[in-house]
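Hi W.,

Here's what went into the run:
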Amino acid sequence: MRVTSPVIGVLALQGDVREHLAALAAAGAEARQVRRPEELAAVDGLVIPGGESTTISKLADAFGLFEPLRARVRAGMPTYGSCAGMIMLADKILDPRSGQETVGGIDMIVRRNAFGRQNESFEAAVEVAGVPGGPVDGVFIRAPWVESLGAGARSVAAFEGRTVAVRQGNLLATAFHPELTGDHRVHAMFADMVRAAV
Amino acid sequence: MSTSPSNAQTPETGTARVKRGMAEQLKGGVIMDVVTPEQARIAEDAGAVAVMALERVPADIRKDGGVARMSDPDMIDGIIEAVSIPVMAKSRIGHLVEAQVLQALGVDYIDESEVLTPADEVNHTDKWSFTTPFVCGATNLGEALRRISEGAAMIRSKGEAGTGNVVEAVRHLRQIKGDIARLRGLDNHELYAAAKELRASHELVKEVAELGKLPVVLFSAGGVATPADAALMRQLGAEGVFVGSGIFKSGDPARRAAAIVKATTFFDDPKVVADVSRGLGEAMVGINIDVLPEGERYASRGW
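Here's what came out:
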C-alpha cells in the first residue's frame, strides 16, 4: 500500500513538459520526466504533453518507447494527453503524416490542427465533466478535435459542437492546454485517477 | 499585457497566452530554415517542430549580398501546403507591412529578423497589434525585454547567422542567462536602477527577477551546425534551437537534421549525442567571426 503521493511522469521528448510538471506538483503528485523505458517503468501514471505530435512520435519511435508505452497503457496505467498528447492517445489519426504512429488506447479518431492554424488559435471557457467549480480556461493552440468516438470512449467536454475532451477507463485526453493556465483542476482530477489506480 | 484567464463565451484569438503558449509547445525542439517545399518535407520527416520559410539561407544571403527581404508569397504558400508542422517566416526589422503580409498568408509565427536588411533604423514593429505571434533576436537581456515590451512572444539569442560558427550563439545566450542571474541577486530597491541600465520597464525587470527566467520561451539561433552544437546550447539553457544554414548546407541534410533533433532532446546524454554524430558526412564549412567585417555582422542589427 502506497502512502506517499503518486509518482506521475511527463513524457519529456519535446513540448511543454515544464508546465505539466509544475501543474502536477501543484496537484500534490510527485512529478518527474520520462525519456527512457526504464524511467517509464518507475511511474504510476503518465502525462503526454502538448508539443508537435509528429516530433514526439518520431522520437518515441527512435528511442524504443512505443512498445513499452503501449504495454503500460494496455495494462491500465492512468495516462493523460493534452493536445499532441491527445493525438498520441487516439487509436486513429484522420490525416497522419507518413509514418506517424500513435500509442493509442482511446477508441477515437482525431483530426490534427482541426481548429486551424495559429491565427485561429483561441481561448474560451469550457465545462469539463468531473471538474468541479465551473468552466476551465480552454487554451486551444493549433488544436485537434475528436472527429468520432467509439463505444468505449466518453466525451467529457465539447466546444461549438466538437468533442474536445475524452475519458476512456484510466485514459484522459484534452484538445486544450490546462497546463498553460495556472488552474490545476484538470491535473488534480488526473492525480485522483492515478491515486485510485495504484 | 493581460495574462488573466479568459471567461469569454466567444473564442478570443491572439491573446498573450495563446501567442506565448504556442512557443511553449515548441520547447525541446528544432526549428529549421528551409527554402523549398522539398526541404520542408525533409525537415518534417526528420522531426523538426517547425520550419522557417526563407528565400535564401543566411549563408547564401552573406554570399550574395544585396538587400534581403521577406520571401515570395508563392514560396511561403508552397511550404505551408507541403507540411503539417508550424511554418514561420521572416520580416525585416520595422517593416510592418511585410509582417502584415505574412499574417495575411497565415504563417504561424513571424520572425522580425536581423538576418534580413533592416527597414527602420529606429523602430521595431508593434507586435501587440498582430494576431500572429512574433519571435525576435536578442544579444542581451535588455534587448530581449525591449522586444517583449513591443509584444514579442518568444525570444531567440541571435548568434551570428550563416556562419556555422557557434561562438556568437554561446556569447549571446551566456549574456542573457548571466544578466538574468545578476537580477536574481538584487533587492527591490536596486531593480529600478537595473531597469534603467537595461533600458527596459521596471515591471518586466521585476518579473524576470522573480521568475529567474524570461516571461517567454528562449531559444538559441545563429551558428548551430552539429548535434553537439545543439546539445551545447541546450545545456547552456536554451529551451530549443533554430538551425539555419547548418542543415541544408551540409553533406547529408536529412540525416544531419534527424541527428540534431535527437541531440536536442537528449542534450544531457553524451552517449546519445555521440551515437547520432556518427556518419553525418560533411558539416557546413563555416566562417571565423573575427574575419567578418563589422558591417557584415547581423547581430548588431536591432537595438
